[in-house]
Specification:
This protein has three helices and two strands, in the order αααββ. With 130 residues, it is mainly α. Bound molecules: zinc ion.
């Protein structure tokens, strides 16, 4: 038994280091630690995907600029056009909640299809949820 077990046991189990509440607390602590590690791993993986995505975007833009003769104004105008598709200049093109055409319930922006009836509400290939 470690010092931590003793301290935790006294704090949680009122002086009974081997009590049930102590082992439950340790179990919750282990679960929280496991979840934190998993979350850190997922964030690292997403950062790597994002770095890779920026690299690909930069390469694609330079190919378009160099091979197709597009100018920075062309890119900025297209970015503005796409950004404004959702009616708000906010650096995003993500729709708001909408009413399902089929069942008339509200469909969250997180869902590409109605969760009640399955009606597709966003068929964009760039929708954040698929
Ligand atoms: Zn529906």
């Amino acid at each position: 038994m470690s010092i931590g077990d003793l301290i935790f046991g006294y704090a949680i189990g009122r002086g009974e280091p081997e009590s049930i509440s102590s082992s439950m607390a340790m179990s919750k602590s282990a679960e929280a630690s496991r979840k934190a590690t998993s979350t850190e791993r997922r964030i690292r993986m997403m950062e790597e995907y994002l770095d890779r995505s920026f690299l690909i975007h930069e390469a694609l833009w330079e190919l378009l600029r160099d091979k197709a003769g597009l100018k920075l104004d062309d890119l900025e105008n297209k970015l503005y056009e796409i950004d404004m598709r959702d009616g708000e200049l906010d650096g995003k093109n993500q729709r708001k909640s909408v009413e399902c055409k089929n069942c008339k319930r509200t469909v969250s922006a997180r869902h590409a299809a109605c969760i009640y009836c399955g009606e597709i509400v966003d068929d964009s290939i760039f929708a954040m949820s698929k």
